[in-house]
Amino acid sequence: MEYATRIREKLAAGLAPERLEVVDDSARHAGHAGADAAGETHFHVTVVSAAFAGKSRVERQRMVYALLADELRERVHALGLTTQTPGEAGA
Q1: Across residues 19-32, what is the average pLDDT?
Q2: What's this model's pTM, rounded to 2 decimal places?
């Protein structure tokens, strides 16, 4: 299974997001540390979820990292995150 798919499925199951975007930015990082010609090493993820209510930015990131621990250990080198509640996102 592709890593982008795994990321989507785990975040959808763990955070019940109202909005979820997973963008593979690997091509933009060719030649950088951790980059692989096969791709799927650098991602930007946007998650809008009520599960983030009352949580700091760091707490939100830790929630995402915990859900994606296997992917981060196996292949994903960089993960950019935008984490918002529905109210913050204007949803």
Answers
A1: 78
A2: 0.84
Position 54, amino acid: G
Per-residue confidence (pLDDT) for residue 90, from 0 to 100: 87
Name the residue with tokens 């991602």. Answer: 43
Please measure the distance between the N-terminal and C-terminal CA atoms of the chain and give it in whole angstroms.
Answer: 31
Output the six-digit token pair for 7: 């990321």
The per-residue pLDDT for 32 is: 59
